[in-house]
Amino acid sequence: MEKLRITSTPKNTDTITRTIRISGTTFDKISSLAEKNNSSFNSVINQIIEYGLKNLEEQ
């Protein structure tokens, strides 16, 4: 499986606002990734979700 690569992406205007709950440890890891890659927290979240959906094993 190809590894996830976080990239800086342009803002998308086609968005939906939704509240989610994540652990403090996960929040810290995502915040760190966003900072290291000069990207927003939301952009990193979206990239992680897209990667997960593309690599989801169907049951």
Note down, in words, how this protein is organized.
It is a single chain. With 59 residues, the chain is an all-alpha fold. The protein has helices at 24-36, 41-54. It is globular and about 35 Å long. The mean pLDDT is 91.
Oligomer: single chain
Number of strands: 0
Round the mean pLDDT to the nearest integer and report it.
Answer: 91
Name the beta content range: under 5%
Short summary:
The protein has 2 helices and no strands. It has helices spanning 24-36, 41-54.
Question: Which SSEs are present, and which pair or pack?
Answer:
Elements: H1 24-36, H2 41-54
Descriptors for this entry?
mainly alpha
